[in-house]
TrEMBL record:
SUPFAM superfamilies to which the protein is assigned, alphabetical: Cation efflux protein transmembrane domain-like (SSF161111)
Native source species: Chroococcidiopsis cubana SAG 39.79
Signal peptide as annotated in the record: none
Parts of the chain that traverse the membrane: 35-56, 62-85, 97-116
Alphabetical UniProt keywords: Membrane, Transmembrane, Transmembrane helix
Localization per record: Membrane
Record protein name field: Cation efflux protein transmembrane domain-containing protein
Pfam families: Cation_efflux (PF01545)
Amino acid sequence: MKALSDLDLPVKLNDCQLSHSSYVKAGQGTQKIKLLWIVLGLRIGLFLVELGVGLWSHSLSLVASAGHLFSDLLALGLTLLAAWLAQRPAVYQRLEILVALLNGLGLMAIAAWIAWQAISRFQTPLAYRCGS
């Protein structure tokens, strides 16, 4: 059982809601950024493999999944940019809202492209040869 001080409970202070884990300690920021870089590198590799196999096999589901991975890559990249800008002397307020907006717009663009591809494949299906 966790002690009450170990729980991440919101605290109300002067009409401002804070959380115990809201603030990153001095050495943890760079460690988290390094982990984000590692995750970004691994996901780029997975994206390239998935996209390549999806294009090679004409699989719309693999290409759609690669599109989802691409949106994750954009979100990770924007997160790294936001973390870098947060370390700058001038604090950029509400940057996380801009990052979330850009991520949402990217997801909507990918969903529109997938829908367009699916409709075009229904109208002109790919011809498959069975046997010899």
